[in-house]
Amino acid sequence: MKICISACGKDPDSEVDPQFGRCNYFVIIDPDIGSVTSIKNPGSEASGGAGIRAAEAIAGAGVNTLLTGSVGPNSFSILSEAGIETCSGIRGTVAFALREYQAGKLAVLESPNASTHSGIKKS
Q1: Would residue 114 count as lying in a domain?
Q2: Would you say 11 and 71 are in contact if contact means Cβ atoms under 8 Å apart?
Q3: Whole-prediction pTM value?
Q4: What does the alpha-carbon distance between residue 94 and residue 89 come to, in Å, rounded to a whole number?
Q5: DSSP secondary structure string, 29-68?
Q6: pLDDT average, residue stretch 56-68
Q7: What are the counts of helices (DSSP H) followed by strands (DSSP E) for the chain?
Q8: Helix or strand or coil: residue 99?
């Protein structure tokens, strides 16, 4: 099982980033085999469609579960179609968010919890 966590950095000690579409990295952990990898979020610097690019990237990485803060309708649709369970309520470090998930303390999203374009960076 691959668990993806939206993060500011590349490793388990990195702070989580509650914005799915605009986070810098995705830290992907497979607790069954103990692997940790990271990928740069292709949506982090996108002028538009950040959530869509991010969702496609993690679906392509074979992720089963996403731990994040907010997910808009477009990315939620892609994640749902790919069969990716999405949980919200992350805080602290990537390692802490993983422990919270494993303890059943994160809420599973049944629908988007952010509006379209909510992650757009203001200049």
Answers
A1: no
A2: no
A3: 0.90
A4: 12
A5: EETTTTEEEEEE-TTTT-SS-HHHHHHHHHHHTT-SEEE-
A6: 97
A7: 3, 6
A8: helix
